[in-house]
Task: structure prediction
Amino acid sequence: MYDHFFESSNIYLRNAIAKYGIGAFEFIVVEFVEIIADTSPSEIKALLLSREQIYLNWLFSLPASCRFNFLSVAGSGLGYQHTPEAKAAISAANQGENNPNWGKRHSDSTVAAMSAAKAGENNPMYGVLTSRAQGVSVFSAADNSLLFTFPSYREAARYLNISHSAISKAVRSGEVYKGLYVFKKG
Result:
């Protein structure tokens, strides 16, 4: 109990004890949980967390001013939000040489594996058009017939195996690209 009330990271509880004294609090055993012999530690933990969750559900039905618990899920930090000051302190503490990855470099094989894992359809930006993307129509330079329409310059460049900057330049200038294509916005 000493660790819980005096060494706890719950600053609100520690401040209340400091202000009002430990005698202002009432401690009650709400349930005894019977542990059967030969129960594994993981089963005991699961049982105790399930029982704690019942009381947390009840506690969180009360107004916030009536409780010192801030996490509504037993055994979990879910729902905890650091203050902006705490976020700034954590960020500052992990700068430069304090950063756990300071001076480390991924191996070439790891970089290649990470790149492959995010290629094509696995890339979170796959198929997503940016708000600045402009569609482009591709016409034949020979007879001015419409050949393709693409939602973006990059899609057209990928399909035609040319750079998107070449398409952008051809759109701006209105010139025929390598005697083959005429590019127009839209």
Observations:
- DSSP finds seven helices and three strands in the chain.
- The radius of gyration is 31 Å.
- The helical segments are 2-6, 11-20, 41-59, 84-93, 108-117, 153-160, 164-173.
- Residues 17 and 23 are 8 Å apart (CA to CA).
